[in-house]
Specification:
Order of helices and strands: HHHEHEHEHEEHEHHEHEHEHHEHEHH
Strand content: 5-15%
Number of domains: 1
CATH architecture: 3-Layer(aba) Sandwich
Strand order of the largest sheet: 7-2-1-9-10-11
CATH superfamily: Deoxyhypusine synthase
Number of strands: 11
Radius of gyration: 22 Å
Structural class: alpha/beta
């Protein structure tokens, strides 16, 4: 017979859910029926996000990988999260922002099915992203938009990706206002809420390709990726000075590594005292044993200094499709938590950057030893 005390210490609740009636809200369904396996992990993600990351002192970073905006998740989920103050800064693939621009320009994407004849699609100038289809002209029109936009004087200088996306969002937001429409663009919503959006691999997308084309014509715009490394580290450094830092990771890839490397940049490279992100929530369908889960699990990330060792119980990985989990998470959060005041981190970007620079210069000028030079206790 088992020790009841031990069983209770490792069990949160007895599994005894009420029958599903069909009248439940999404949040009620998650709380009542998502008990075990990855449903249980999704419920944990929802609860930790709502109860911990959305506390007033926590700065929330979000990563986007995979084709989320083409599927409409920018409109249905990401914009409501931004407007509710549930996301303070973002690291995204360039592709998600490029396809977001289709919606801003009112270039339609369509639902279809995944088993189409791709040769026939090519013959009819139709592009396919799994079960999403759209006209090839959508790409050409979006390309033309970016090439024309960056001729503006506002882009005639080096800048980081947060500043670049803010200027793009400014134009898309103004365009929507000029024609009397509510913008359906993630970039425009982020501009309006002063949510900085970084791209960890800015050349690896159609936006980067078009910027490269303009460079051949003598354009002055240069994307400063090193600025991005320090700006993102500065966001986390400022967040930890005032409270906590939480990350919500959708998928993996470069955005995941980029948001997590902020802590090694602060600790390992700059030599400033820090302990790692406080909250780590991840939704992925990759596996660590094949090398496909970039940055791997929260416990492995902890060994790099990316996650605070004391906060591992609040780190959850749910192995499922982001297109399933994200709408459930957003519905849960909006039902269970009031909107937060917008943190407007874009406005404090320069100040936070200079604070990080100052702390680094103080360490150097004081001759403080780098963490790598400190002797470990025997």
């Amino acid at each position: 017979m088992s020790d009841d005390g031990f069983l209770q210490s490792i069990s949160q609740h007895r599994i005894a859910p009420p029958p599903v009636s069909g009248t439940e809200t999404a949040a009620e369904l998650i709380d009542r029926a998502f008990s075990s396996y990855n449903a249980g992990r999704l419920r944990e993600v929802c609860r930790v996000f709502t109860q911990k990351l959305l506390q007033p002192d926590c700065t929330v970073g979000l990563t986007l990988s995979g084709a989320l905006t083409p599927a409409g998740l920018g409109i249905s989920c990401l914009i409501p999260m931004i407007q509710a103050g549930f996301v303070d800064w973002i690291v995204s693939t360039g592709a998600n922002l490029y396809h977001d621009t289709h919606y801003a320009l009112d270039l339609p994407l369509h639902q279809s099915r995944p088993n189409l004849d791709d040769y026939e699609l090519r013959q009819h100038d139709v592009i396919r992203i799994y079960d999403i289809v759209f006209d090839y002209k959508t790409l050409l029109d979006t390309d033309a938009f970016y090439r024309e936009l960056i001729r503006d004087e506002a882009f005639a200088r080096p800048m980081g990706t947060a500043e670049f996306h803010h200027e793009v969002g400014r134009y898309l937001h103004g365009r929507a206002q000029a024609i009397g429409r509510t913008s359906s663009s993630l970039l425009a919503a982020a501009f309006e809420a002063d949510v900085p959006i970084f791209t960890s691999s800015p050349a690896d997308s159609s936006i980067g390709m078009n910027l490269a084309a303009m460079s051949l014509q003598g354009g002055s715009l240069q994307i400063d990726t090193l600025r991005d490394v320090n700006e993102t580290a500065a966001i986390v450094y400022a967040a930890k000075r005032a409270g906590k830092s939480g990350v919500l990771i959708l998928g993996g890839g470069s955005p995941k590594n980029f948001i997590l490397q902020t802590e090694p940049q602060i600790q390992e490279v700059l030599g400033l005292a820090e302990s790692g992100h406080d909250y780590f929530l991840q939704i992925t369908d990759a596996r660590p044993d094949t090398g496909g889960l970039s940055g791997a699990t929260a416990s492995e990330a902890m060994t790099w200094g990316k996650v605070d060792p004391e906060k591992l119980p609040d780190s959850v990985t749910c192995y499922t499709d982001s297109t399933i989990a994200l709408p459930m998470l957003v519905a849960y959060a909006l039902a269970r938590h009031e909107p937060r005041p917008l943190r407007r981190l874009y406005r404090s970007r320069e100040r936070d950057y200079e604070a990080l620079r100052s702390a680094y210069e103080v360490r150097l000028s004081a001759g403080s030893e780098h963490p790598s030079e400190r002797k470990k206790p025997s």
